[in-house]
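Sample pair:
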Amino acid sequence: MSRARAKRQRARGTGAGRGRRSAASPHVSVLVEAPEWPRRLRAAAALARRAGREALSAAPAGGSLGTGTVELNVVLADDRAVRRLNRDWRGQDKATNVLSFPSQNGPARNGPARNGRPVPRLPPGVPVLLGDVVVACGVAATEAAAQGKTLRAHLAHLVVHGVLHLLGHDHEVDAEAERMEALEAKILRRMGIANPYRTTA
C-alpha cells in the first residue's frame, strides 16, 4: 500500500468500534485561574484535560464535530469569578458549580435545521472551536463533601457535564436528562469513576 493511500485511510478513520470523532485529536486547554485548585487537588489540570477529551469522544446531540481539530478550553476558577460570569451572562447573582459558553462555530450552532431554519455546517478541515467550560472550586468542593464524593470524581463529572452541554446535550425535559445522565455515567466509567447519579440505599 502506498504511503499516500495509507494516509488517506487513516484520515477517514477506518478503525472499527469507535464512535464519531474528529479526524484530529482534540485540543483541550486547561487554565488554572484559582490557586486553590492545585492546593485542593494536585492533579486538577490533568484530570480536567482528560475529562474533556473523554467527553469529546461522545457523539454530539445537535450537530457534527466535522473533520477539523476540536478545540476546548477548561477554566478552573474560584467562586467569585464564576459568580461574576453567572451574573453577567445568566442574570443570576450567585456562584454555581459549572458554566458552559459555546463558541460561534461549535456543533450546537452547526447542526440540523432549528426553528425551521437550516444551520450551515463547517467545511471539512475547519477547526471546531467548541467553547469554554468554567468550574468553581469552592462550590465544587462543597458539593463533593456534601454528596460523599471525592473532589477528583466531582471535578471530572462537572467537566464532562459542561462539555456535553457544548456538544448540544441538555436536561430541560426528563427524557433529555435521562439520556444525558446515562452518557455522563458511561464517560465517567471509562475514567474509573462511579455513576454520580446512583444512590445507595
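DSSP finds seven helices and four strands in the chain.
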